[in-house]
Amino acid sequence: MAIDLNAAALDRLPEGVEGPSYDRAGLSAGIVHIGVGNFHRAHMAVYLDRLFSIGADHDWAISGAGVRAGDSRMRDLLLKQDWLTTVVELDPAGLSARVTGAMIDFTEIDAAKLVARMSDPAIRIVSLTVTEGGWFVDAKTNGFDASHPDIRHDAETPDAPKTAFGMILAALRQRRDAGAAPFTVMSCDNLPENGHVAKQTVVGLAELSDPEFANWVSDNVAFPNSMVDCITPATSDRERALVKDRFDLVDAVPVACEPFRQWVLEDNFPQGRPALEKVGAEFVADVAPYELMKLRILNGGHAAIAYPSALLGHHFVHDAMADPRIKSWLAALEAREIIPTLEPIEGVDFEAYRVKIEERFSNPEIGDTIPRLCFDGWNRQPKFVLPVIRDALAAGRDVDGLALEVALWCRYCAGTNDAGEALAPNDDHAEELKTRAIAAKDDPAAFLSNETVFGDLGQQPAFADAFARQIRALWTDGVAATLERYARG
Fold it and tell me: Which InterPro entries does the protein's record reference (predicted)?
């Protein structure tokens, strides 16, 4: 008989399921985390659970939070489980399960209550996982997007904010006025220089309503950069059934993830931090080289396999990696055009890292899907692919493969695969992308003229010409032949 997950179940967890070895009643919150999704619970929450398990830093537990209406459902489900999560590590050598207990509460979805929680001096870090598109970044300038309606609302009514950033500012103001030290703001999203992006958004919003306060935030609040990594598929009935059938637990929101984790952080926490280095995190003076390696080889690699895999009819990532056309294309693109844009990192072997990425993508236990990788290209391409193209062009390097990646995205946006079957829309801007992609069959500039995504990149002849060749090849010769031609060199 499967056991319902809650605090009472911790003393009778099924055989093979580990649980907290620490007394959760002895934990106190030092962190408010906004965005308690799968990635957070597979990554940051696991590191803290491990830390608490060795008897360290029990005053750094997580207080969960959310700002969207949809976050209420997560809160309700976790509440029934006393904030516990089952984390299943999908190791091909053998699956393992652990119930993690690093989260001890979750503020109601209410701006005033969240501001009050963050105003508590015991909270020394406010961390966020709000996805790549949630940071109000202007794609044209890479600066702060002050025109967004939610930002305008928070600028005009700072005492009744809608966004996480408006709430952060309200809490910082209360702490400043009360003479309490400001908390550190830590982004846990896959963004280049995510700490700088967080500062840009928070300070940029403050400047719209109170420039003096914005200066205080800029001078007194730390925004450390970090690099995070752990492939974490979305939870579906498949994962819930796995936990119940394999481990005899009923968990409404379990997390399944790969056994690999990496967390590299800039050591900039004026109000203190948990000793995460004791459980595998790395603290360095400069995160940028590590995050660039990850963003380009892993995230860029995901983008590279996503669209050709969809166009060739693959649904699961591991099945795509078993296709020699996809695997050879990825290896060639990474080696020829992506890795050469990276500066060396002492002690890091880029080729070994690439091979590890290939191994991780090929893990059949993860069940990661191609539609997930294809999602939100409008925001992801400017984060993970287009900067590589810019750097390669600046160095006078070849961009044929990178142009092919963009052409594959364009071909995917046209809405059919190579067999003529319809592809479901997978982007908030799907309609505009489809219109441009279909037009690009005859006029490649129709796709690249989207300045919101490409900026002036489409006007650079070396890239525009390479893109034109590749999109025409995809329509004329098909995806498989075009990939194979590139892989052969």
Answer: 6-PGluconate_DH-like_C_sf, 6PGD_dom2, Mannitol_DH, Mannitol_DH/Oxidoreductase, Mannitol_DH_C, Mannitol_DH_N, NAD(P)-bd_dom_sf
